[in-house]
């Protein structure tokens, strides 16, 4: 039982850093630009397809990951210029409808370009295999690499946001956009930087997860709901909140899915416990969100309304 707990805890942390990469961009876009972007999960999917394509063309996962980054920047800039920029002054309902339409367009475009069959990305040879943790317990090296990479990106974001001029502008924009604009800051340029940064982070998450999941259309929608939960729990516009919220959501979701049925076996027969556990496990994340919002309505690190 201890080995299973440690294993699932590590899986939760690995899922948490991926959710953080997606949620960090989403919370900045919502907190600074006040744009509800339902198409953020599409960027996660596009990143996975980019790395699968470039890795196939070059024969190297590392080259695929490197080439994915400028492609992600280009996608972010184009989306901001063509679609998102026209939504700044529109209502949230208009933003929801427009970005939902973008999701449908992106999914169909992916099917046209890459087909409907899932793609696979081989794990880099240097990161293949497992490492012993405790006793017979082993954990894949690549999943550990995802955790390390996610923590490194979180650290880099912390330094950028708290110790650079652009970070100062991002924090100020999240607090009072009108004042930042009145002080002479090019708010359009700032918004473009914010959206592109969010796009790159989401694409990076998709690229990192590609070797352990199948790359297919619709993969972004499966994480988008959890990402919005992370943003709400952490507090809109807070990177620190996105990081802590992502870890909380991922660990609760992972441990609940595994240990829920096990705990229910003490009061139910095995088949009923398994069925009830599968039904109750997805609810735990939303129960967590409700509990946190009852105590802190603006989220863990959200500003006052």
UniProtKB/TrEMBL annotation:
Keywords: Amino-acid transport, Cell membrane, Membrane, Transmembrane, Transmembrane helix, Transport. It comes from the Bacteria. InterPro entries: ABC_transp_permease, BCAA_transport_permease. The keyword Transmembrane applies. The chain crosses the membrane at residues 12-31, 38-55, 61-84, 96-121, 141-161, 190-213, 219-236, 243-264, 284-303. Pfam families: BPD_transp_2. One of its GO terms (biological process) is amino acid transport. The keyword Cell membrane applies. CDD domains: TM_PBP1_LivH_like. One of its GO terms (molecular function) is transmembrane transporter activity. GO terms for cellular component: plasma membrane. It is a multi-pass membrane protein. It is found in: Cell membrane. Belongs to the binding-protein-dependent transport system permease family. LivHM subfamily. This is Inner-membrane translocator. It comes from Roseivivax marinus.
């Amino acid at each position: 039982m201890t080995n299973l707990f440690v294993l699932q805890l590590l899986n939760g942390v690995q899922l948490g850093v991926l959710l953080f990469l997606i949620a960090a961009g989403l919370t900045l876009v919502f907190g600074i630009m006040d744009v509800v972007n339902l198409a953020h999960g599409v960027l996660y999917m596009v990143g996975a397809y980019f790395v699968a394509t470039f890795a196939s063309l070059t024969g190297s996962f590392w080259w695929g990951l490197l080439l994915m980054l400028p492609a992600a920047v280009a996608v972010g800039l184009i989306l901001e210029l063509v679609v998102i920029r026209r939504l700044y002054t529109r209502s949230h309902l208009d933003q929801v409808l427009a970005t939902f339409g973008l999701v449908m367009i992106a999914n169909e475009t992916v099917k046209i370009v890459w087909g409907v069959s899932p793609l696979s990305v081989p794990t880099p040879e240097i990161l293949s295999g497992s490492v012993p943790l405790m006793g017979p317990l082993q954990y894949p090296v690549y999943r550990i690499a995802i955790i390390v990479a996610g923590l490194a990106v979180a650290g880099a974001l912390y330094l950028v946001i708290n110790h650079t001029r652009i970070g100062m502008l991002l924090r100020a924009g999240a607090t009072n956009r009108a004042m930042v604009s009145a002080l002479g800051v090019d708010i359009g340029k700032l918004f473009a930087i914010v959206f592109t940064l969010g796009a790159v982070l989401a694409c990076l998450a998709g690229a990192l997860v590609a070797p352990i999941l199948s790359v297919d259309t619709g993969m972004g929608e499966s994480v988008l709901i959890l990402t919005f939960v992370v943003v709400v729990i952490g507090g809109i516009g807070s990177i620190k909140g996105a990081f802590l919220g992502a870890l909380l959501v991922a660990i609760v979701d992972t441990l609940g899915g595994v240990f829920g049925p096990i705990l229910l076996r003490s009061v139910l027969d095995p088949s009923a416990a398994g069925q009830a556990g599968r039904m109750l496990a997805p609810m735990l994340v939303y129960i967590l969100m409700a509990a946190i919002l009852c105590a802190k309505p603006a989220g863990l690190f959200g500003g006052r309304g």
